[in-house]
Design a protein that fits this description.
By secondary structure, the protein is mainly α. It has 6 helices and 2 strands, in the order αααββααα. It has a domain of about 55 residues: Multidrug-efflux Transporter Regulator, Chain: A, Domain 2 (Orthogonal Bundle), CATH 1.10.1660. Strand 1 and strand 2 form a beta hairpin. InterPro entries: HTH_17 (IPR041657).
């Protein structure tokens, strides 16, 4: 169906592309923020910095449903390692207490491990006098 075959009333209500497919709905940053459970500021800031997919209409950021799905996929976190029922590697064969003692003996004794705090020298003097 060509653009000229579509009644003008429908073209005004439902814009279509050259191929006749309807244009995607564009969402405002506030709507995306509500769907993601974050602030509109975060959405606009990430779009401005080019960290999330978006469309710019004038000076306004707009998002499609595909953009939202991509944002979710980009910020998805996977487990760092898989949890299997069989232990692997030499470190997991020793009992936990032995592993802890070995880790403690290889660590140098510092102020943080002994519980004593040491003041750091100041980077600059606040009330320096010019001589």
């Amino acid at each position: 169906m060509h653009h000229s075959e579509i009644p003008p009333a429908l073209v005004r209500r439902f814009p279509v592309t050259e191929g006749g497919a309807p244009l995607p709905r564009l969402y405002r940053p506030e709507e995306i923020a509500e769907a993601l459970g974050c602030s509109a500021w975060w959405v606009k800031d990430r779009a401005r910095r080019g960290l999330i997919p978006h469309t710019r209409v004038g000076h306004a950021y707009r998002f499609t449903g595909a953009h939202l799905a991509e944002i979710v996929r980009l910020h998805e976190e996977r487990p760092k390692r898989s949890f299997s029922s069989t232990p692997t590697g030499p470190a997991s064969t020793s009992p936990p207490a032995a592993r802890t003692r070995a880790a403690q003996s290889s660590r140098p004794t510092t102020a943080a491990t002994t519980g004593h705090l040491r003041a750091r020298p100041p980077r600059r003097t606040q009330y320096e006098t010019v001589v």
